[in-house]
Please model this.
Amino acid sequence: MDTAQSASGAPAPEAPSPTCFRHADRESYVRCTRCDRHVCPDCRREASVGYQCVECVKSGHQSVRRARTAFGGRITRRPYATIVLLALNVAAYLVELVRPETVDRFAVLGSGVLPPPADADPYTYVPHLSGIAHGEWERLITGAFLHLGPDQWPMGILHIVFNMYWLWNLGRVVEDRLGVLRFLALYLLSALGSSAMIYWIDPHALAVGASGAIFGLAGGYWVLSRRQGYDPLGGNQMMVTLVLWMVLSAGFASWQGHLGGLLTGLAAGAALGYAPKQQRGLVQSINLVAVLAVVAVVIAIATDQAPYSG
Model:
């Protein structure tokens, strides 16, 4: 075929080569599948179909919302919060092994006189009242990260072993449904509710263990499973097992802590699970604050009733 010629017989001028919309000096015949602009190799990214320019890729990332769980939390690949809680419990246990007096200082205790430290001078040491009622408010949380020592009856090291077993198997499922922040709120509120119940009913008890918080996780799981209609762990059977254990172990374990954690977990689970989808995060926050307020009232009542409280 001959070259096209103009009416005067001269060759027609060639059309200019297309160039990258960001680099005018770079020839490009590849177009962005979203905006249809020409893009050079430095300005294009592979897409499911063809290529997209870097600007369309950036705007696409900004417009895509992150995946959420059924109850509004962000989906994560691993149970990060559960792993951190496990690590904190194990780390605290190692500290206990090195410094056993840590238990007396940070266990849940409403009001009482503790034995003198190992390095105290028996002639100059003056016993004093310790506990939550005397300003040691940190005990309301720190006690949930401590456990019985290896030589302490009746469970010894099995205390932390069983609790960590439950935390790992139950925590992963609950965290997967709630996301990190909501899961931590449920766990810590349950731990606080557990300590508050001990403080109120048995203020002289020196209590340790994550079981109150784990009872709370079980209560939260039960509520969320009823709400979602999906119960892979057998929530009803789990609840029966835990209630039986709470009764049978009442002679050597803190049934008050188990009960307080369970009730708080049920309430927090309902606060998270039954919030409407519209403005769910705000409603869940308000609901959790309401649960916290009830726990705070219990703590205030316990403080008012605690013997020798200042």
